[in-house]
């Protein structure tokens, strides 16, 4: 014979394992709160779907161990800004995020912690602005080749991106 004890919560009781088993309105309320919590969590699937990476490319290189810029277009349709945190490509040992400063004298590249991606905008990473530098290439890069690189965003997470090797900038 099994006894069921009720808790002080209206509509709740103990289940067979002795845990509180919400039912009725309380159970529905708890389920709704959990569902809303997942929906509001930053980095959810919706954030990833709102970000598109296109036209990613690197220049041709006849040398191994060289540093090359990775450029691309990024469309952020989300209501929040995002940022590029890192990139991983199979043909480079390291990567850095750069911007180009135009102060006194010639323009100069400078490493930065992240590249901002404004909300509801399309930005283009290019050699004379924000871009990614792929350091110490592991192989020669021939015109027309493609590789898959991973771009990691603060909110949208990781995006697998096809990168084209191209003679044209």
List keywords for this structure.
169 residues; ten-stranded mixed β-sheet; disordered N terminus; two-stranded antiparallel ribbon; 2 helices; mainly beta
What can you see in these coordinates?
By secondary structure, the chain is mostly beta strands. Helix content is 13%, strand content 47%. The chain is built from 2 helices and 12 strands; from the N terminus they run ββααββββββββββ. Strands 3, 4, 5, 6, 7, 8, 9, 10, 11 and 12 form a 10-stranded mixed β-sheet that branches. A two-stranded antiparallel ribbon has the order 1-2. It is globular, with a radius of gyration of 25 Å. It starts with 11 loop residues before the first strand and ends with a strand.
Set down the secondary structure blueprint.
Blueprint: E1 12-14, E2 20-22, H1 24-40, H2 45-49, E3 51-59, E4 68-76, E5 82-88, E6 92-101, E7 108-112, E8 115-117, E9 121-125, E10 131-137, E11 146-153, E12 157-166
Parallel strand pairs: 3-12
Antiparallel strand pairs: 1-2, 3-4, 4-9, 4-10, 5-8, 5-11, 6-7, 6-10, 11-12
- The low-pLDDT segments are 1-9, 26-45
Number of strands: 12
What structural class should be given to the helix and strand makeup?
mainly beta
Major β-sheet annotation: 10 strands, mixed
| Overall radius of gyration | 25 Å
What's the mean pLDDT score? 80
What is the molecular shape? globular
Share of residues in helices: 10-25%
SSE series: EEHHEEEEEEEEEE
Number of helical stretches of at least 4 residues: 2
Termini separation comes to 79 Å
């Amino acid at each position: 014979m099994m006894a069921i004890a009720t808790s002080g919560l209206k509509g709740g009781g103990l289940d067979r394992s002795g845990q509180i088993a919400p039912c009725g309105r309380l159970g529905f309320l708890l389920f709704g709160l959990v569902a809303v919590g997942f929906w509001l969590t930053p980095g959810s699937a919706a954030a990833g779907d709102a970000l598109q990476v296109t036209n990613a490319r690197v220049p041709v290189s006849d040398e191994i161990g060289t540093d090359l810029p990775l450029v691309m277009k990024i469309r952020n349709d989300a209501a929040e800004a995002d940022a590029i945190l890192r990139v991983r490509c199979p043909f480079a040992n390291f990567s850095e995020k750069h911007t180009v400063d135009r102060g006194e004298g010639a323009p100069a590249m400078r490493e930065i912690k992240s590249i901002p991606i404004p909300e509801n905008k399309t930005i283009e990473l290019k050699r004379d602005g924000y871009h990614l530098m792929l350091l110490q290439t592991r192989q020669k890069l021939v015109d027309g080749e493609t590789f898959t690189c991973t771009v990691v965003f603060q909110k949208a997470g990781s995006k697998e991106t096809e990168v084209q090797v191209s003679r044209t900038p």
